Amino acid sequence: MNNMLQRIVLAGSMLALAASVSAAEIVVIVNPANPATAMTAAQASQFFLGKSTMFTPVDQAESASIRAEFYKKVSDKDLSEVKAIWSKLVFTGKAAAPKELHSSAEVKKAVAGNPTGIGYIEKSAVDSSVKVVTTLP
Q1: Phi-psi region of 83 (alpha: psi -120 to 50; beta: other; left: phi over 0)
Q2: What is the helix (H) or strand (E) element at residue 27, kind and residue range?
Q3: N or C: which end of the chain has fewer CB within 10 A?
Q4: Which residues form the signal peptide (predicted)?
Q5: pLDDT by residue (tens digit) across 24-78?
Q6: Residue 70 to residue 45: CA distance in whole angstroms
Q7: What pTM did the predictor assign?
Q8: How far apart are CA 108 and CA 118, in angstroms?
């Protein structure tokens, strides 16, 4: 019975950890030299949906859970809707889709190295190499 209790406690701990990972706050970041100090979620979505070229967006990998959560929060769109928007923009030659990187560390590094870069990462990954302009609940 002791073994069964250990398994239940372990399973509960794993569920709590998974919930905390998916509930992490997401922040929109820019290069520290960027004059922007704040923006709304709606403003941020303009750059990630190809409606503005003022900033150069850097996206998370399509398979990353943060990506789906980000687009839901800033635009109320799921990934298939976002993909459809970019497919149309790319096909018509109006825009190039954002570069996809495989981790928040890579996104942070890319934004830190590009004065017009904009990206999104977990709040816990922020350091002085980037500036937060939006925190998504």
Answers
A1: alpha
A2: strand 26-30
A3: N
A4: 1-23
A5: 899 999 999 999 999 999 999 999 999 999 999 999 999 999 999 999 999 999 9
A6: 9
A7: 0.81
A8: 9
